[in-house]
């Protein structure tokens, strides 16, 4: 991987995205590790899927099991098992839908909200410690680059590939 001084280098014409991606691999893995480890440091330990599910429930009031499966990118049976685990841990509850007796809404419990808040705080503190070791220019460049990446990623995920793949593994682990 390139050293930190490369932040200041000029863009090289012909730098292909694949070459940039290869140079960034270690940094991306480090950021993912930082992000995931925050969920592993709370009690109960949360997998990436469990954390994603809790965040989906927090952001979408009245989310159903089907909506959760779509949000997390897993099959309905896996989403049901995921909810079973989160409910057993006291982080999530299923309540009857007010207008459809066969449907259930998913709600965060107070413990679930506390867990998400604690994970968010841990992520912020750990990321801030890494950012403190960078120069102001490096932090600005990283922030600008990550914002651009986020926008590009949202665009590419929204577009379906010709083979119908959306970037989600519908048979993935249930957390």
Strand and helix layout:
Elements: H1 17-40, H2 48-59, H3 65-72, H4 76-88, E1 92-96, E2 104-108, H5 110-132, H6 136-158
Antiparallel strand pairs: 1-2
Helix pairs in contact: 1-5, 3-4
Notes on the protein architecture:
This protein is mainly alpha-helical and 175 residues long. It contains 6 helices and 2 strands, in the order ααααββαα. The chain has helices at residues 17-40, 48-59, 65-72, 76-88, 110-132, 136-158, and strands spanning 92-96, 104-108. A two-stranded antiparallel sheet has the order 1-2. The two termini are 31 Å apart. 15% of the residues are buried. Residues 1-5 and 160-175 have low confidence and may be disordered.
- Give the CA-based shape: globular
Q: Note the total helix count.
A: 6
The overall pLDDT, averaged over residues, is 83
The ordered H/E elements are HHHHEEHH
Could you give a short account of the major beta sheet?
A: 2 strands, antiparallel
Task: Provide key terms for this protein.
mainly alpha; two-stranded antiparallel ribbon; 6 helices; 6% strand; globular
Structure at a glance:
The protein is mainly α and 175 residues long.
